Amino acid sequence: MKSHYCLITGASQGLGKAISFELAMRKWNLILVALPNSGLENLANYIKKAYKVSVVYIAADLSSRSGSELVVDFINQNQLNLKFLVNNAGVLSRGLFKDQNVDYYMNQINVNVLAPTYLSRELLPNLKLNAPSGILNVSSMASFFPLPLKQVYCGTKSYLSTFSRSLRIELKKEEVTVSLLCPGSINTTTRICLQNRSLGWLDRKSVLNPEKVSKLAVEGMLRGKEIITPGFINKLFLVLDKILPKWLKNMLIMKELNHLQNIGKFINDEKQKIQLKNI
Ligand SMILES: NC(=O)c1ccc[n+]([C@@H]2O[C@H](COP(=O)([O-])OP(=O)(O)OC[C@H]3O[C@@H](n4cnc5c(N)ncnc54)[C@H](OP(=O)(O)O)[C@@H]3O)[C@@H](O)[C@H]2O)c1
Questions:
Q1: What is the Cα–Cα distance from 212 to 23, expressed in whole angstroms?
Q2: The listed CATH number (3.40.50.720, 3.40.50.2000, 3.60.20.10, 3.40.50.150) that belongs to domain 4-189+197-239
Q3: pLDDT, tens digit (0-9, with 9 covering 90-100), for 22-41
Q4: How many Cβ atoms from other residues are within 10 Å of residue 99's Cβ?
Q5: How far is CA 164 from CA 56, 137, 190, 198, 202, in A?
Q6: Which of the 8 DSSP states describes residue 189?
Q7: Which atom of ligand 1 is nearest to the CA of 111?
Q8: CA 267 to ligand 1 centroid distance, Å
């Protein structure tokens, strides 16, 4: 019988990588999942040596059902006992709905919605056998608000939020907790870091680094917390959403839309500058 593992999807970079380190630091064995050729082998070797834990990795494309099947088959064939499933892999986006083709949105829905649903369902027998155990679904503050330029992304995260809260009630008796992580902006990808630099004062104050979010996420998950909202300002946004009148919220959203479009231009300018420097 092998000891217990935590599975983290989207573990190659950003928040998923930070969550993997946070769990390894606490001596959890890991199963890392990300796309092929994303450096998982090196990451797994590094974590093994640095933290003296067992780390296995699975290169799988979670945008297709066969990718999710690969993950489940690997775990079953190797008889890995699962304590925690962290559905973190996600496709981010920002732009007008008309500006991306339909394949982009199908891919985003597959990774953000179908993969966590598939993995939660197919790995549930394993989690039940190893109960008390848990699932952490990585949603977003974007799941609470209608946000122009993030339409499909917001929809996928709203699904994840309602799915998690419903499943949590259903699994209470089985001792499998379902936690929901709803971070605001995190400095992960280059694009997000550039966007965050040009935010207004209050929004800038809400931005967190992946290390801080992963610490709160892992602490919350291990305690079986229902909703984890990292950062004081993000909690404040949720309170304001409840008390501000609708007309004022709509006005702020339209202001944000104009601002985000300007940020889009700013990022393209910055990217051009970087490209020019590299010539
Ligand atoms: N960054 C933010 O501001 C923010 C805010 C709120 C919520 N979140 C959520 O946090 C999670 C992580 O975001 P992040 O900022 O860390 O993003 P990221 O840096 O872009 O990392 C995304 C991860 O998902 C993996 N992934 C993407 N498509 C995949 C696919 N088809 N199959 C398998 N793995 C795939 C990527 O693997 P590869 O390296 O192989 O591409 C990568 O490991 C997401 O669910 C996101 O929605 C982020």
A1: 13
A2: 3.40.50.720
A3: 999 999 999 999 999 999 99
A4: 11
A5: 26, 7, 29, 33, 29
A6: S
A7: 31
A8: 20
